[in-house]
Amino acid sequence: MKNITRFGLGLLLSSSVMAVQADDVKIGMITTLSGGGSHLGVDVRDGFMLAIEQSGRDDIEVLIQDDANRPDLARSLANEFMQRDDVDIMTGIIWSNLAMAVVPAVTRQGTFYLSPNAGPSDLAGRMCHENYFNVAYQNDNLHGAMGAYMRKEGFERPIIMAPNYPAGTDALAGFKHLYEGEVVDELYTQMGQTDYAAEIAQIRASDADSLFFFLPGGMGISFMKQWESSGVDIPIFGAAFSFDEILIKAVGSAAIGARNTSLWAYDLDNETNHQFVDSFREAYSRTPTLYAAQGFDTANLILSALDSVHPDDQDAFREALRAADFDSVRGEFRFGPNHHPIQDIYVREVVEGEDGQPTNRLIGVAVEDIQDVYYEQCQM
Amino acid sequence: MINTTSQRAPGAVKAPGTERHFDRKGLVQMTLLGLLLILPVVAYFLGHLYYVNLASRITIIAMAAVGLNLAIGYGGMVSFGHAAYFGLGGYVAGISAYHAFDFTPFMSWPISVPGSDNLLVIWLAAALLCALLALVIGAISLRTTGVYFIMITLAFAQMIYYFANSWPTYGGEDGLPIYIRNTLPLLDTGNALTYFLICFIGLILAMALTSRLMKSRFGAALTMARLNDVRLATSGISPYPIRLVAFVISAAITGLAGALYADLNGFVSPTVLSWHFSGELMVIVILGGVGRLYGPLAGAVLFVMMETLLGGITQYWQLFLGLVLLGVVLFAQHGVMGLLAGRERNE
Amino acid sequence: MSVTLLIEQLLNGVQLGTMLFLMASGLTLVFGVMGLINLAHGSFYMVGAYATAAVTASTGSFLTGLAAGMAAAAVAGALVELIVIRRLYHRPHLDQVLATFALILIFSEGTRWIFGSSPLRLSPPSWLTGFVTLPGNTRYPIYRLVLIGVGIVIAIALYVLISRTRLGMRIRAGESDREMIGALGVNISKLYTVVFALGAGLAGLAGALVGALQSVQVGMGEPVLILAFVVIVIGGIGSIKGALLGALLVGVVDTLGRVYLPIFFRAFMPPSEASGVGAALAAMLIYILMAIILAFKPKGLFSAHD
């Protein structure tokens, strides 16, 4: 942990000491490094910096700031990057509500923004922008893919559950859109809820044959721990946001058997991914999460565009980004017309790893070439 | 205007023989206000827009704290829920702009209320709605005292926070963007310096209002209600309505600051309604010096600057922020203003 | 809605209530005896959970971990009292608010510095996992029943401590007249440190016990801190009895509200809308409850300071 910090800081310091030349590229990263849920931001940052380091380029300066998961602070930091540091590209935001606060202002002022995680529907649809690229997913993707997968697997009476906030209601809507059938019930929990006894009792009382839930971060940990000893034995499904490598290790055995959709898996078989996972483990002594993979891909996309043109030539740089001519750890990767990915969504199952700790194993593809439904509303 | 108001401590009778003390305090206050005005102007003409916007942020937070200080410092009403008014003010700006942008009415029954992007309309609406909300909350809360008052104000703020988080029409937790800054006749509010000056005038007016109020009979009664409400009651004045009025004015000032903040950020979200934000406002008031006219300003400058500077140095910046705050409370008894300008006579 | 489901939900409410009581009892004691508003009480909850997770992971014994967690929280409490809080007793409430707000930041980020950003793993021991079958063929987790049991034991122990022991006598004396017990020659500063450490230890115990069911992560103490404040204000500040009844009331109302409000709204709304409205109202419910109680009983249900 400390090593990584030192590495990040060292990079920051050495790069700011370096004489800045006219054709140097400045990248501003605003991400969540403190408070609850900060392991997402740490992984995005580490994946991103790994790619920058591997590129061996010394003309790229990455400025990193912590938004503490607060929209107003993130907005102020964005001003700092744009108005004081004059960055060419911004990236890093983890949460949809922070993205909504920052991204429209950034792109409107002519700075590129590449999202390494959040993909709210408005930014894919009516508020899309030519300078905004999402390198991760549109928020509905993983939930919809799980709906399609569960239908394919023959589950007929799912009960579905999410926190009562926009990303939660979107998740359930996305699930239902591709599940294309009736669900037994929809449960809405509170944001940040820690006790799920009441919901578990309701699930037990229903005659559901499966459970789909979207409970990101600590909420998912709490739920699964409580689920384990409840004696309810229907299979559970979710999106990768409740099942990244760090979370399932905190959950322990309770996560075993759960299936989840993800746009990436560390055991995905392609050369770029093998190299990424190996070098990430070597650099940070842990298995990367999908957030690290998204950070890594974001950096490599930027690097691929920088190989041909400097961001000062906005139109050419935008074209270079749009081409997405880089080796993604996900294998195939391309952008739809609204600059959101068209990609395969995989299914992983949580199994017991060689060290006795739970880990994800790739078991198949949920949906090939999934695309969000908002691109038709996008006019750029 | 401030020159005259700042010479006298609010709510206190002028005491003889403290001239030297006055000079130091006046000097500190003038320096603070002067720097806040001059630095952004200089930054603007040097092309550093970021610092202008940072100054706007400090100014607005200070104004919100001025509102809270009227309740806490002068009225002795420790409100742990002023985020509710700050957030409501912000949402008035956001919702009004949203409807003006969409050309949809905010309300069509029983009367038709259209959206508006005119800042004067928004400010008026924000102040009135916050005053109304504070009237209801205050009327119930002021029946309690001490910690009960702290917690009941928190409870009301939490209700509004959860409501805003889960109500989908205006974005829920995602918040509500303001695409184009709301406008004023004849002025380009989109200009960073213009907007800073608007905020600065707002802060000055809020401070002047506080000062005028506290020098009036009303202020004397409020001070008496804080220090000894039994004595006030025996002189035939009921403390309850006095406190309620002060609480309502305090909420309106904080609500106006909230509206300014939403337009500064081009964005409003439930985060500004959370108990964290109520706590931060309180911390700023205490940090600067409770019940001092310039306390909220000093607190806001220090707090926002620390947040900005420490954040760039280490990802554990909140740890150091905590240590600094702890240091201030342990070693500077009357806040930053107490440290710089000496004690108030009524302390 | 079946009766068995209602009974199960009542048990869930009681279980939530007993854990809230562990938090609230310390908070209310500290306020009652020293007149201190301690926003950092949630930090001791977090310290307890982290210490338990760390010790359980290295020794393999949950009970050792639990003892370590409670001890760590009590020691942290004693240190905080000796270094910081001690200087604040004669200062206004507002200074206490600022100082304990600062302590939250220090504890949270300090913990993150030591343990990293990832949540820690802490599970109930294998002999406490699984469920029992209640009448009506309902399965109920053993661990939650144990939590209820621990809560009851602690409540009785606190009652005995306060009504039957010398320390309890001093605490009661301190609550009714702070100057008086000093005059009677009681070593006040020692008493204060002990009471503060006791409250912190109980919070640590709650954090450790609940941490096994939830996520052990930075900031875990804050939601429960707010709930604990609601509890002691409803119950009447300084009153252990009030804290117990307030905790049970909040636990049961919160749990039942979450279950039955969405169902209630479904009677006259489309299901998905009803779930949303019900959940939103359920989130506000305990605050509405608190506002109503304070509107009619401005000093809570059982104030010790009447």
UniProtKB/TrEMBL annotation, chain A:
Which Gene3D superfamilies does the entry link to?
3.40.50.2300
Q: Does the keyword Signal apply?
A: yes
Concerning InterPro entries, the annotation shows: BCAA_transport, Leu-bd, Peripla_BP_I
Key words of the record = Signal
Please list which residues make up the signal peptide: 1-22
Domain spans labelled Leucine-binding protein: 25-353
A Pfam family cross-referenced in the UniProt record is: Peripla_BP_6
Q: Which domain of life is it from?
A: Bacteria
Q: Does the keyword Secreted apply?
A: no
Q: Which family does it belong to?
A: Belongs to the leucine-binding protein family.
What is the official name of this protein in its record? Amino acid/amide ABC transporter substrate-binding protein (HAAT family)
Species in which this protein is naturally found: Vreelandella songnenensis
User: Upper taxonomic classification of the species?
Assistant: Bacteria, Pseudomonadati, Pseudomonadota, Gammaproteobacteria, Oceanospirillales
Automatic annotation (TrEMBL), chain B:
| Localization per record | Cell inner membrane
Major subcellular location class: membrane
GO CC, sorted alphabetically, is: plasma membrane
Q: Does the keyword Cell division apply?
A: no
Its keywords, alphabetically, are: Cell membrane, Membrane, Transmembrane, Transmembrane helix
* Superkingdom of the organism of origin: Bacteria
Q: Where are the transmembrane segments?
A: 30-52, 58-76, 83-101, 121-140, 147-164, 192-209, 240-261, 281-304, 316-341
Q: Which GO terms describe its molecular function?
A: branched-chain amino acid transmembrane transporter activity
- Pfam families of this UniProt entry? BPD_transp_2
Instruction: Note the topology in the membrane.
Output: Multi-pass membrane protein
PANTHER family noted in UniProt: ABC TRANSPORTER ATP-BINDING PROTEIN, HIGH-AFFINITY BRANCHED-CHAIN AMINO ACID TRANSPORT SYSTEM PERMEASE
Q: What is this protein called?
A: Amino acid/amide ABC transporter membrane protein 2 (HAAT family)
Species for this entry: Vreelandella songnenensis
Query: Upper lineage ranks?
Result: Bacteria, Pseudomonadati, Pseudomonadota, Gammaproteobacteria, Oceanospirillales
TrEMBL record, chain C:
Q: What is its main location?
A: membrane
Q: Which domain of life is it from?
A: Bacteria
Would the keyword Secreted be found if you checked this record's keyword annotation? no
What is the annotated localization of this protein?
Answer: Cell inner membrane
Entry keyword annotation includes Repressor: no
Bilayer disposition of the protein? Multi-pass membrane protein
- Name the keywords, alphabetized: Amino-acid transport, Cell membrane, Membrane, Transmembrane, Transmembrane helix, Transport
Instruction: Provide the family line.
Output: Belongs to the binding-protein-dependent transport system permease family. LivHM subfamily.
Can you name this protein? Amino acid/amide ABC transporter membrane protein 1 (HAAT family)
* Organism in which the protein naturally occurs: Vreelandella songnenensis
Biological classification of the source = Bacteria, Pseudomonadati, Pseudomonadota, Gammaproteobacteria, Oceanospirillales
